[in-house]
């Protein structure tokens, strides 16, 4: 199994291109199931999760062509299967996103339950209730969500989510786009990726308003059509490189990104003492060789501080001046990186959903194990400021969400390489 071997101690300096957002690309690829005619999706990140989603579409009969610029074209003219099998779903929770489009367009879906994962139990009850509210008959049997639409067409409804759910909002949005009548989603997720999906669906002919607010209105239309759409930049990848620059006292310019969707993270980086400058599609962070100051973090749905940046900021605090508190409110078990950071010499005390982190000037290199995607990223950042060599094991997690991570860090001056076995 591959690992990343990192020798710490180098200050990051340089420019890095940010890829398209995984969490936008996955739902938008699922939405291609709704399109009549050919649909082109561009700015796709080169990631395992994207390959898995393309494989999933392919096994349903979607014809997928990959263009030279790495955009893909999909054609659903020959879709024959409405099954998302366990073998694919178990490797990628976002497979649940085919449920809404399959029901809306084909009136039937069988999607394996994604199951729990390293960050919490992650149920899909709100997705199921959303589909039921739109008129689908759903039962959970043999590990699968088996659903069909009596009469073949979903019906608009008022849906209130008692918990803000990103992919739940996206699933209902896709289903409602082709339903009869109007759907209102209250307490909708406001994440930029939800807005990106609404923009894409509208470009396909949907009538969606209110994306980016907590109330969305979706007027169902008869048909949706293929269009050309580029997914938005990855704000979590951007934030990860900026935090890495901050902990090494360095200077990094992230290009092809979007400062407007990163307010909470940029604000915390400034609070940590970073100088941030931005342009329309770039963000530069300069620490001028200083050590960051500890910051308090509390994760919550957008526009608050994102849970997907929590692990990276825990490392920032572990190397900062002072003590910072990290509170995780979105997932019940997202501190698995804390234990590994402690093995590298970090001072972290976890109690329930709160971690109290007291900064040290340096950590120590050690073999560590990544347990989920952002945990893996946090261990790589920690290794950049550790004495000696760190091997980050189980990096298949990192390959789910970071395109060419070692090349990008090398470009910024880090001593990092992928080692087989
Ligand atoms: C592919 C994708 O976009 N993944 C992101 C998405 O995950 P995902 O969409 O899975 O996360 P949700 O927003 O749904 O989860 C938020 C909370 O709601 C709970 N919940 C969710 C659905 C449900 O049916 N029942 C329920 O109880 C979850 O357990 C969690 O505690 O948003 C998360 C929160 O920003 C991010 O960390 C993930 O990177
Ligand atoms: C938790 C994440 O992703 P997913 O929902 O795909 O597991 C993430 O991107 O940090």
TrEMBL record:
| Top-level taxon of origin | Bacteria
Q: Which residues form the active site?
A: 117 (proton donor)
Pathway given for this chain reads: Cell wall biogenesis; peptidoglycan biosynthesis
In the Enzyme Commission scheme, what number(s) does this protein have? Answer: 2.5.1.7
Specify the Enolpyruvate transferase domain's residue ranges.
7-408
Q: Give the catalysed reaction(s), semicolon-separated.
A: phosphoenolpyruvate + UDP-N-acetyl-alpha-D-glucosamine = UDP-N-acetyl-3-O-(1-carboxyvinyl)-alpha-D-glucosamine + phosphate
Which terms in the Gene Ontology molecular function aspect does this entry carry? UDP-N-acetylglucosamine 1-carboxyvinyltransferase activity
Q: Which InterPro entries match?
A: Enolpyruvate_Tfrase_dom, Enolpyruvate_Tfrase_sf, MurA_subfamily, RNA3'P_cycl/enolpyr_Trfase_a/b, UDP_GlcNAc_COvinyl_MurA
What keywords are annotated for this sequence in UniProt?
Cell cycle, Cell division, Cell shape, Cell wall biogenesis/degradation, Cytoplasm, Peptidoglycan synthesis, Pyruvate, Transferase
Q: Which Pfam families match?
A: EPSP_synthase
Binding-site residues for UDP-N-acetyl-alpha-D-glucosamine, renumbered to this chain:
93, 122-126, 308, 330
Q: What's the family?
A: Belongs to the EPSP synthase family. MurA subfamily.
This chain's function reads: Cell wall formation. Adds enolpyruvyl to UDP-N-acetylglucosamine.
What HAMAP family does the annotation carry?
MurA
**Name by which UniProt lists this protein:** UDP-N-acetylglucosamine 1-carboxyvinyltransferase
Q: Which organism is it from?
A: Thalassolituus marinus
């Amino acid at each position: 199994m591959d690992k990343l071997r990192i020798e710490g101690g180098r200050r990051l300096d340089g420019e890095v291109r940010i890829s398209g957002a995984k969490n936008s690309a996955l739902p938008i690829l699922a939405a291609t199931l709704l399109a009549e005619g050919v649909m082109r999706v561009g700015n796709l990140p080169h990631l395992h999760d994207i390959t898995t989603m393309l494989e999933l579409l392919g096994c349903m009969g979607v014809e997928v062509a990959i263009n030279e610029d790495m955009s893909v074209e999909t054609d659903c003219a020959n879709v024959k299967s409405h099954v998302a099998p366990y073998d694919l779903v178990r490797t990628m929770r976002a497979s649940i996103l085919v449920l809404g489009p399959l029901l809306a367009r084909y009136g039937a879906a069988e999607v394996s339950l994604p199951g729990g994962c390293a960050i919490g139990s992650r149920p899909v009850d709100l997705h199921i209730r959303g589909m039921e509210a739109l008129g689908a008959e759903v039962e959970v049997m043999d590990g699968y969500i088996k659903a069909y639409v009596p009469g073949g067409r979903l019906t608009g409804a008022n849906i209130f989510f008692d918990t803000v759910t990103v992919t739940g909002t996206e699933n209902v949005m896709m289903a409602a786009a082709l339903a009869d009548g109007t759907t209102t989603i209250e307490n909708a997720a406001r994440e930029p990726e939800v807005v990106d999906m609404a923009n894409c669906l509208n470009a396909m002919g949907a009538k969606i308003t209110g994306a980016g607010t907590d109330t969305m209105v979706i007027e169902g239309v008869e048909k949706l059509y293929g269009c050309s759409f580029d997914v938005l930049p990855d704000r979590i990848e951007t934030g990860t490189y900026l935090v890495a620059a901050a902990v090494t006292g360095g200077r990094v310019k992230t290009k092809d990104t979007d400062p407007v969707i990163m307010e909470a993270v940029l604000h915390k980086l400034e609070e940590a003492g970073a100088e941030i400058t931005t342009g329309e599609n770039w963000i530069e962070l300069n620490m001028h060789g200083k050590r960051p100051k500890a910051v308090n973090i509390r994760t919550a749905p957008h526009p608050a501080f994102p849970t997907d940046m929590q692990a990276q900021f825990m490392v920032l605090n572990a190397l900062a001046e002072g003590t910072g508190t990290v509170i995780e409110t979105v997932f019940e078990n997202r501190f698995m990186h804390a234990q590994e950071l402690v093995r590298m010499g970090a001072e972290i005390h976890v109690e329930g959903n709160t971690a109290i982190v007291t900064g040290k000037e340096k950590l120590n290199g050690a073999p560590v194990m990544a347990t989920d995607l952002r945990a893996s990223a946090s261990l790589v950042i920690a290794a950049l400021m550790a004495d000696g060599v760190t091997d980050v094991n189980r990096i298949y997690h990192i390959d789910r969400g970071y395109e060419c991570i070692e090349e990008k860090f090398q470009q910024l001056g880090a001593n990092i390489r992928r080692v087989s076995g």
